[in-house]
Amino acid sequence: MRASTNHLGAAMDLRQLRYFIAIASAESLSRASVSVGVTQSALTRQLQLLEEELGLPLLRRTGHGVTLTEAGDRFLVSATDVVDRADAAVRDMQALRKTTTGSVVLGIPPMLAETLLVPLVTRFRQDFPDVSLRVRDAISGYVLEWLITGQVDVAVVYNAPKRAKLALETLISDELMLVGAAGQGAVQSDAPIDLAEALKLPLVLPSPQHGLRDVIDTAAASISVQPNIALEVEGIHSLIRFAEEGYAYTFLPFGSVSYHVAQGLLGARPIINPSVPSVLSVAMSTLRPATKAMKQLFRYIREDVARLLETEVWQHRKPPSEPPATDPR
């Protein structure tokens, strides 16, 4: 675990800080080595590395042991603060693991499986092994309906309407992309493409009952262009598969295909004149009390999406600038 404050460099770790605190407390390298359970030579080496990084001596050797220099005295305050806060954070998580039980059902679109779902579930299960976690995946319209009817506890959805009975937080204000097989004609370039031009390409789209289709149809109607639909499919995986095979193009949010783009299976172009918004949100129902496990999962989704936005394939996608409308904490 790395220590990082305004006072401490990123390279020094908690072990070095603990060793320094032990030496300062014992006023002796030999006594400190016994208290921390390492050899005196190893302790001395770590102290030297710490002093080299700081560029100042922290201890003054005397005939009876060691004393703090002026720099060491000041550094001890910062080091103790960092170690105390780190220990408090660990105790807090340990207490949470001991007390958090129950079950949580997560609803999520299958298109987010590669980028969000697997690391999210892995993290949650590691931190809360006593919580039963169940995942249900479907298109956003179904997931939202499950949330409203109590079949899922936490939902990740695209383009959810604002409703009084939902605690809804925007994760990404994204835009739909024109997606096709990597190297295929219209996606050989990654330059923006006009919506009217994109709609005239052979398209594979979900059925009109799908929320994504509703967004596309609304955008097409706004510029009075009829989509050139070659095939309708219900499942997102089938949609992506047909696009990968070069059968037709489709429209999807970048987050749902970033893995495929990174693997060289798909190409994607931004859409302009106009752009087509696609908003990813996390939601819980306000009609049922939120358990501690539900709140933690809600928070983890927010944090994991924020981390995804910093990755190589998502880095050009920005989180919403406005503050969240609701927070389950």
Topology:
Blueprint: H1 14-26, H2 29-36, H3 40-54, E1 59-62, E2 65-68, H4 70-99, E3 102-108, H5 113-127, E4 131-137, H6 140-148, E5 154-158, E6 166-181, E7 193-194, H7 195-199, E8 203-205, H8 211-222, E9 229-232, H9 236-244, E10 250-253, H10 254-262, E11 266-272, E12 277-285, H11 292-308
Helix pairs in contact: 1-2, 1-3, 1-4, 5-11
Structure description:
With 329 residues, this protein is α/β, with parallel strands linked by helices. The chain folds into three domains: 14-98, Arc Repressor Mutant, subunit A (Orthogonal Bundle); 100-171 and 278-308, D-Maltodextrin-Binding Protein, domain 2 (3-Layer(aba) Sandwich); 175-277, 3-Layer(aba) Sandwich (D-Maltodextrin-Binding Protein, domain 2). The protein contains eleven helices and twelve strands. Strand 3, helix 5 and strand 4 form a beta-alpha-beta unit. Helix 1 packs across helix 3 and helix 5 (113-127) crosses helix 11. The relative contact order is 0.13. Keywords: Activator, DNA-binding, Transcription, Transcription regulation.
Give short descriptive properties of this protein.
329 residues, D-Maltodextrin-Binding Protein, domain 2, 11 helices, two-stranded antiparallel ribbon, Arc Repressor Mutant, subunit A, 3 domains, alpha/beta, 8-stranded mixed sheet, 43% helix
